[in-house]
Fold this protein.
Amino acid sequence: MSRGPGSTRAVALCLLVGGILLLPLAALVVTALLGFEAETLLRLARTVLADSAWTSLLLAAGSLGGALLIGTSAAWCVERFEFAGRRWLAWLLVLPLAMPTYVIAYAYTDLLQFSGPLQRTLRGYGWEGRLPEIRSLSGAIALFALVLYPYVYLLARTALAQISLSLIEAGRLLGASGSTLQTRLVLPLIAPALVAGGMLVLMETLADVGATHYFGLATFSATIYRTWFALGQREAALLLAVVLLLAVAAIHLIERRARGRARHSGSHTHRPWPRQRCTPLQSGVLVTILLIPVLLGFIIPLANLLWLLLREPILSTQLERFYDWSKHSLILGLLGASATVALALGFAYAQRFSAGAPRRWLRRTGAALSFGYAIPGTVIALAILWPVARADNWLADRFDWQQTLLVGSIGALIYAYVLRFFAVAWGGIEAAMGRMPDSLDAAARSLGASRLGVFWRVHLPQLWRPLAVAWLLVLIDVLKELPATLMLRPFNFDTLAVIAQQLAADERLAEAALPSIAIVLVGLLPVLGLNQLLNRSAIGASNGEKAWPR
Amino acid sequence: MATLSLSDIRVHYSGSAEATVEGFSLALASGEIACLLGASGCGKTTVLRAVAGFLAPDAGRIELAGETIADAARQQPPELRRIGMVFQDFALFPHLSVADNVAFGLRRGPAQLAPAERAARVAEALNLVYLQGYAERYPHELSGGQQQRVALARALAPRPRLLLLDEPFSSLDAELRESLSLELRALLKSLQMTAMLVTHDQREAFAMGDRIAVMRDGRIEQCDSAYRLYHRPATRFVADFVGEGCFIPARYTPVADGPGQLHTEFGQLPLPAGSPEPPDGPLDLLLRPDDVVHVDVSALRAKVLRRHFRGAEFLYELQLESGRSVLALVPSHHDHAIGESIGITLDLHHAICFPALQPPDPGKA
């Protein structure tokens, strides 16, 4: 309804902005595919590409396996058994999500190194051996699994909670019981959720620069970062970026299909599947086992960072600089979140007031922009840096300029954030807009409200909460983001994430502790909200059932 | 209240799911309730949305209380028309309580009221729909029937000049529909509200409308009372669409002084008085289930093909000797098994004939 010439302009503007945002990525692929000679490609493929592909593959497969194992078992225990402390554990198990991979890497490096607290304590008891080196591929796999398993855990829990008792009863009547029931019925039912959760783990693993670079692992992302900056081999970096982009695009498509299927698994007449009661002894065993990932993935590293902070008397001298880093982080966060939410809101309105072909194009552009969430920060950064670098070279050749143009600016960073985090804002805002049928607008108009009145009196009261949530989520994501910030930030513009990485790289782990802790605490906010949301949606899934047994 | 007149309007909107309406004219007297009846896609909702102001007519004119509210050149925006509307999905504002939903149209816009008057008007509107105790509830805490009544109270509170109802009962249970539609009609009549209702359910239309406009492909096929639509359908489409029935081949021979004769497989019968004069040539005669009467002793026999038990009566589908089938409504104590042969006669009070679609089978008619 109320489609007019104004909406045509809005659609055109949205498509233009979306196109501009997507242009660098398209240009990256095209230049890499057209601009290289076959010889260069082959040489690179034999050397850098083969190495980083192998390392990335091992890291991804290991982390994925570990995350699936921990996440699925934890979800199974929490959803299928009733024991003392279940609700608390259900919540605690999400906490590692607040721990960025680079932060847990610094924490464990300090904890486990020769001069670290653990080895010193052990030596105090007369122990003579050495602990395995955490700064290795297997160390990275263990740490990634420990902080990324909550993706699998959350989605598996939702899927398990949505299984209706009727399905289980039908399975029993058809002769399935015990392990047959699990493998033939339950596993297929939660499989889409496991695939979706696993894909998120893969994306995070492939995108990581902080931990892998710090551990000296030659993954795609870490190599892109190193070859571009340290070695100056831009062609190699570009090729890696394009290969990574294509790989991620493939994974993204698989994940979306898995989600599409998962959506159909919910049933309308939901009867909860009652949990198995546990004896006190069983409860004790379960709680102990389930506490392990929480301890290893969140409490121990955080405690070690706090201990590091208190142990070293550098806190007071650092505070003033800490204020600057926080300020920079916050500026980027505020600008990034506002720009992203504004664009998502613009898209949502343009889509609401358009029909036919323009609406289809908006939906496609929105979907393409949402793919940005899956693209590693290094690739996005490179896509933005590449044209600037070309222009720089061209200008240097032509005008014999010594000075480079290759100075990052806040603008480039915001650009990268909008592209990277559009999906975060878009998901919630589009869903909220979809929950308001057109008939609400028509009803308000027939009751005497003008177009603006419809926005103020009908839309905004329903939209402000999802808008605030989207804004906060993007803000926090920007604060935690490392690779793109690292590559694109203006000179001398250090954020919490960047400074933590740089201090850690200089082996100044004690100094890295304060910014790291700040990032973890900020990251806790959405994790807590996410858990609440999950509890609420589980209740929603029971569709009218009076109480969800907890 | 006010009169509504639509003259020769054309509404076409590319890129939308709504059907095109062309050459549509309809006039409502003050206090009259009209129903637009038709299958989905016939354009009935398009007409309603054009009257409300959400679609602009390309041609023609819509007048409300003698004032033009829309023509090809100029459309009054919907918020200034003072037309109330009850939506198919009720469109209650989920963030507002029942009282605030009803007060929405009274806070700003043409029906704005001072707070004290507003509260009184809200209470009055809720009274009207028997929802006095529900003012502080939220829409999701109400049943479907209660939500529908809130939607009605909200539309009526600003005292609109015209009330539009878009399939107002479609999301309710079948039992609720019947009682609510009679209740709603009584309420609208007591308020002398001019109203236009859109529905695809003829029982709803029969229960609600003073006049019913049967629509097809964006045009009105016939606009009449429920009785006349059923018994005097003007077109074959209306005869088919409204009520149950079937056609049997017939021939008509006029008689100079007296009723002409209809020749059918039931035998020869005089054209009942008051029936429209049948056209020339081979005919199809409309038989409603109440035109076929079961008489045990009748010589004319038919075989029971199917039976629907409806409580007070059976609806039998009977096979004639010619192989054609007719429907018969029979009191339910006449319980006959499928395959049984029963006696029937025709009891025509008026005959409705249309030119035959297929040439009649020679020797059988």
The mean pLDDT of chain B is 89. Chain B has two domains: 4-238, 244-355.
